[in-house]
Design goal:
CATH topology of one domain: FAD/NAD(P)-binding domain
Order of helices and strands: HEHEEHHEHEHEHEEEEHEHEEEHEEEHHH
CATH architecture of one domain: 3-Layer(bba) Sandwich
Oligomer: single chain
Largest sheet: 9 strands, mixed
Radius of gyration: 21 Å
CATH class of one domain: Alpha Beta
Bound molecules: flavin-adenine dinucleotide
Number of strands: 17
Length: 443
Amino acid sequence: MSKVCDLASPILLPDSHKPLKKNRMHSSYYDASARARDAFPRLEGDIRTDVCIIGGGYTGLSAALDLRAAGFSVTLLEAARIGHGASGRNGGQIATGYTPGMIETERLVGREEGRRLWQFSIEASNLLKERIQDYAIDCDLRPGEFYAAIKPRHRDWLLQEQAHCERVYGYEQYRWLDTAAFRGQVASERFCGALYDAAGGHLHPLNYLLGLGRAAALAGVDIYEGSEAKGVAEGSTPVVTTAAGRVTADFVILAGNAYLGDLKPQLAARFIPVDAYIIATEPLGEARAQALMKTAACVSDMNYNLDYFRMSADNRLLYGGRDKLIGRAAPEEALRGNMLATFPELADVAVDYVWGGKVAITRNLLPDVGRIGSNIYYAQGYSGQGVPLSAIVGRLLAEAVQGQAERFDIFARIPHKRFPGGTALRLPLLSLARLYYEIRDAL
Ligand SMILES: Cc1cc2nc3c(=O)[nH]c(=O)nc-3n(C[C@H](O)[C@H](O)[C@H](O)COP(=O)(O)OP(=O)(O)OC[C@H]3O[C@@H](n4cnc5c(N)ncnc54)[C@H](O)[C@@H]3O)c2cc1C
């Protein structure tokens, strides 16, 4: 039986479906192509620390690196292994700006706060690239991202965003490619042009994460794996408990994102965890990969239920998308269908890997960052743009812990609404919202 499973467990692909190779014992291409993993111990006993971070993804590690550099003792608890969450499974695409677009972001937060958020997104990409360089992280970083229009309304939206970012922020990294020019870069007849972002890019997400983990450990962050935080007792010195240990801290940072479960139910009601999947083809060889994509950049389409793709360092096509309700098939079949709609000439190509993860999506599609009381901070809900944004948000969490919250508060002031009915109604609402967006995509 076919199933999409966790990074940690093997996957059996269906033998009735020829183009999928059967019995591959890796669920994730990233797992299979990961650089050497460091192992970290399980927490046992009582610990006293300045800052306890819950969650070993980009957000937790980014905050940990800056806090350690500022001289704090830092204990990071990871329920599974670092990179177990979205940070070890994602599309690796580095976009500038925010998921709703900057015109909508400014409508939500105002012109001045929108401008500051835009600057943070630029700082985020720069910081990510700086860390890759400073810590010599080998993660196949490549420049460039295309936002590809499938419909004329997508093209109009992209051109408006480009004009807005040029006029208001002086951003000069966007370049519009019409249908023919884009087809010269990406050999697909599905698109009617694309906006190129020279400052965007992509990377191997798990190797980036493992590099951050190694840098944090070398800097003196105490990382514990297999150490799920089961409770956080609030107070002047919050206490975090695990199955076999206890951490007493001056500050706690909750960085569990869509994987936090109900550790703090008031946070879970502020986003919906959407299942997203990626397939990796067998290696295509350089000539065939080049014939499909002349560009080294990655591509995202402009549907609500978007598809995104790029070539890996070993010339596999990585093709991702969100779980769909209409005409629902097993994720690997659905994604393979989408891939063939984009590149029909890949019909003979086998899919070697399929894996999934949870994306935390907020109602307004902007990150949800804030405090619980005076000494517990949280960040979640990047809505599909956490690869770069987690770098800056981690930095701002560290600044807030140091008592410099002016920049942190720009994110914390973003107005967010809970999902009505809290966690109980999240899933029915998610189905309704997905249905609505799928119908809109089809129009
Ligand atoms: C399939 C997929 C594709 C995506 N594609 C992109 C993309 O191309 N570009 C982009 O920018 N973003 C993308 N994203 C989103 C991006 O991956 C996330 O926004 C980002 O990784 C969030 O990082 P994080 O550190 O906040 O959370 P996570 O990486 O999810 O880390 C949270 C960690 O906390 C741990 N944890 C949870 N609860 C506890 C607990 N109680 N105790 C201890 N540990 C706990 C989890 O095990 C997990 O390791 C994608 C996500 C998915 C799933």
